[in-house]
Amino acid sequence: MLLEADVHAYLFLSFSLLAVGVYGLLSRKSVIRMLFAVEMIINAANINFVIFSAQRNVDGEIFTFFTIGLAALEAAVGLAIVIVFYKRFGEVIPSKIRNLRW
Amino acid sequence: MESIVYLTIGVFFVGSVLAFLIGHFIEKWASFWVAAVTGLVGFLLSCYIALNLHEHPIFHEFNWFSFGSFKVPLGIYVDNLAILMALIATGIGFLDIIFSRGYMENDESPQRYYFEKLFFIGSMVGLVFVSNLLGLYIFWEGVGLCSYLLIGYWYWKKSAAEAAFKAFVMTRFGDVFMLAGIIVAWVLLGTINFQELNALAIAGAFSVKLGLLISILLFIGAIGKSAQFPLFPWLLDAMEGPTTVSALIHAATMVNAGVYLVARLFPFFDYSHALIVVAFIGAISAFIAATGAMAHTEIKKILAFSTMEHLALMFVAIGVGSAIAGIFHLLNHAIFKALLFLAAGAVIHMTHEKDAFKLGGLIRYMPQTAILFLIGILALAGVPPFNGFFSKDWILAAVYSYGNPVIFWLTFIAAVLCIAYGFRLWFVVFTGEPSEKSKRAREAYPIMLIPLYVLAALTIIIPFFKEKIIHFIAGGAEVHEPFYVDLLVATLTVMAILFGIVFLVYYKRVISTAKFLAHPLGKAINDFLYNGWYVDAAIKWVSKHIFYGSIAKAVEWIDIYVVDGAVNGTAKLSLACWDRCRKIQTGDLIDYLTYFVAGAIVLALIILFV
Q1: Which residues from chain A sit within 8 angstroms of residue B589, using beta carbons?
Q2: Fewest 10 Å CB contacts: which of A60, B46, B371, B423?
C-alpha cells in the first residue's frame, strides 16, 4: 500500500506532467509537437489511474491499458491527419491556416 | 317539433346549393324551379310550425363545443314572434322568387342569383329561430354576407360593387359593437340566451348601467342592420342591386333583423332604460327619411327612404313600450313594401328607367301595375281600410300617450308625410304626359303580376284578421291598444291636406316646383333633403379626417415605430452582439485551445473554492 505522502508525491508528478502537456499544447507551433503534448496529458491521466487503483483494486490499472491502446490509435490517426493536412496546405503550422472560423 | 324547425332552416341551405349545382351543370333556368320548390317547402314548413305552435314555445339547446368548463351553447327557440318573422321571410321570399323569373329573364347566371337568394332567406329564418345571441350573430353575419353578394350582383358595374362594399362595411361597423355587447353580456351576466337575459332583467339581477351598456352596444348593431340614423346611407346605395333583391332586403329579411333583435330583448331593454334611446333614434331617422323621400327623384331611392322611415316607426313603437304595435307594423310594412318594390321592379324592367321624373303617363301602358302600385301607396300612406293604416295609427296613438313632444312631433310629421311622397311618386310615374320611354312600355308578364296580386290582396285582407294577428303576436297576453279620436281626425285631416297639395303640384301641375328649385335657398333645401341630410358626407368626413387622418395615422405610427421597431430592434441587437462576439472566433486552433484550457481552469477553480 502506498502511504498518504507518497500519493501526494505521485499526484504532484501527474499534475506536473499535465501542466507541461498543456503548456506544450498551447506554446508549440507545429502540429506534431502538439500531438506529443497531448500524449503527455493522456499519460498524466494514466498515472492518476494507477495511483488510485494501487490503493483499492486493479480496475484503474486495467483501464490504463485501454488508455494506452487508445493513445496509440490516436497517434496513428493523428499522424494520418497531419499528413493530409500537409498535403492540403503545404505546412503543419495550424496558426497559419485560419479556416476554422465564420 | 324541434326536428321540423331544424329542417326548415336546413331546407333553404340545401336548396341553395342544389339550385346552384343543378343550374350550373344541367340547365341554368332549372335553378328557378329548385328555388321555387325550396321556397314553397320552407313556407309550408313555417306554416306547419305556426299552426302546431301552442302555448309553449319550442325550445331545444345543445352544446356546440366546449373548452374544459367553458361551454358554447347553440339551439332554437321558436315562439309566436319568431314564427311570424319566419312566415314573413319565407312567404315574401317565395313570392319574390316567383317574381324574379320575370324580372331576371335576361340574366346570365340565374343559378348564382337563386343560390344567394335562398341562402339569404335561410340565414334570416335561422336568425329568427335561434335561441341565443351567438347563434343570432352567426346568421346575422350570414344575412350581411348575402346582402353584400346580392347588392353587388351586377359586380361589373363599378357603382354596384361600391354600393355592396359600402353596405358591408357600414353594417359591419355596427356589428363590431354588437359583438362587443354579446361578449360583455356573456362575461358579466354569464348567459347569452334570450330568455335567460330577459328573465335576469325582469328579476333585476344586474345593475341598470350594465344593462344600458349592453343594450346600447346591441342596439348599434341593430341600427346598422336596420339602416337607422346615422348608419343608413348604405340602404340608399343598395338600390344598385336588382330590384327583387331590394324587395327581399327591405320587406322580408335583412332590415327586419334589427327590429326583431330589439323586440326579442324587449324586457331587457326596458329594464335597462334603453328604450328611450331606441325611440329617439327612431324618431330622428323617421324624420330624416320622410323628408328625404320628399326630395328624391329615383323610384327605388324614394322607396328606400320610406323603408327607413317605416323601420324607424317600428323602433319608435318599441321604444315607447308598444312592441306589439311595432311587430304588427313590421308585418304590414313587409307586405306593402314588397308590393311596392316588386311593382317598381316591373316598371323598371319594362321601361329600363330608374328616374321617376323621366317617366310619366304609365297608367295607359301598364294599367294593372299602376293599380297595384296605387294599392301599395295607399297602404304605405296609411289610408283606411288598407293594412298600413291600422298599425301606423296604433303607433301614433302609442307615441301620443307616451307624452314626449319631441318624439311625437318628429314621428307625426314623418308618418303623415308618407302620403305626400307616396302620391308624388305615383303621380309622377303613372300620370301626366308619357315620355318616350313610357311609350315603349307594356304590361308586366303574368308571372310578375301574380305575386303582386297576392300581396295586394293581403294588404286588404290583413285588417279583417287584425285582432287574431295581434293576439297571435302577443302570445295570449293582454294587449292594450290606445285610441284617440282627436289624434285620428287630426292625422287624417293633415293627410288629406297634404294629398291636396301633392295633387295640385304633381297631378294638376297648377303649382310649379321649378320656381322653388330655382331659388338658391330652395335649391339648398332640396339638395339637403335629397342627400339624406348630408349624413353620408358627414360619415365620409368623419372617416376621412378623424378615423383615417388621426386614429389610423396614430395606429400606423405605433405599428411602424413600436411593433415593427421591437421586431427590427431585436434583429439589430442580435446583429450587434454577433458582430462583437465573432471577433473571438479567430480561426486559429491555438486560440480555441487557449479558451478551452482557460475555461477548464475556471471550472476547476469554481469546483474547488465555491
Answers
A1: 94-95, 100
A2: B371
Q: Is A5 on the interface with B (CB under 8 A)?
A: no
| Residue B268 · residue B197 · CB < 8 Å | yes
Q: Is A101 on the interface with B (CB under 8 A)?
A: yes
- Residue A94 pLDDT > 70, yes or no? yes
Please name the residue that has the C-alpha cell 502537456: A21
| CB distance B316 to B353 below 8 Å | no
Count of domains for chain B: 2
State how far the Cα of B59 lies from the Cα of B42, in Å rounded to an integer. Answer: 20
- The domain defined by A4-94 folds into Helix Hairpins (1.10.287)
**Last residue of some domain: B533, B554, B587?**
B533
Residue A102: pLDDT over 60: no
Best CA proximity match to B387, nearest among B323, B338, B457, B468: B457
B523 and B556, same domain (yes or no): no
User: Is the domain of B521 the same as that of B593?
Assistant: no
Q: Which residue of A has its CA nearest to B595?
A: A26
Tell me the three cell numbers of residue B390.
291600422
DSSP-derived 3-state class of residue B71? strand
Nearest to B366 by CA among B272, B443, B262, B251: B443
pTM: 0.78
Of B154-158, B297-301, B391-395, B522-526, give the lowest mean pLDDT range. Answer: B522-526
Per the structure, the complete domain to which residue B602 belongs is given by 538-609
Which of residues B533, B553, B588 is at a domain's end? B533
Q: Which of A5-19, A88-102, B57-71, B276-290 has the lowest mean pLDDT?
A: A88-102
Question: What residues are paired with B71 via a beta bridge?
Answer: B66
Q: Do A26 and B586 touch (CB under 8 A)?
A: no
Residue-wise pLDDT for B301-311, tens only, equals 889 999 999 99
Q: How many angstroms away from the CA of A59 is the closest CA of chain B?
A: 25
What mean pLDDT is predicted for residues B540-546? Answer: 83
Averaged over B202-220, what is the pLDDT? 90
Q: What is the DSSP letter of B509?
A: -
Nearest CB neighbour to A26, from listed B582, B586, B594: B594
CB atoms within 10 A of CB B386: 23
Please report the pLDDT score of residue B477 as a whole number.
73
B432 and B568 housed in the same domain: no
Residue B586 to residue A102, Cβ atoms within 8 A:
no
Q: CA B53, CA B49: separation in Å to the nearest integer?
A: 6
Q: Is the pLDDT of residue B137 over 80?
A: yes
Residue in B582, B586, B593 closest to A98 by CB: B586
Unique residue bearing C-alpha cell 341553395: B16
Lowest average pLDDT, out of B11-15, B421-425, B501-505, B517-521, goes to B517-521
Of the spans B84-98, B498-512, B586-600, which averages the highest pLDDT? B84-98
CB atoms within 10 A of CB B463: 19
Say yes or no for a CB contact (<8 Å) between A101 and B586. Answer: yes
Task: Identify whether residues B366 and B508 lie together within a single domain.
Answer: yes
Q: Does A102 touch chain B (CB under 8 A)?
A: yes
Q: Tell me which DSSP letter residue B62 carries.
A: E
The partner residue sitting opposite A100, judged by closest CB among B582, B589, B597, is: B589
Residues B421, B311: one domain?
A: yes
**Whole-number average pLDDT of chain A:** 87
- Rounded Cα distance between A42 and A23, Å, is 14
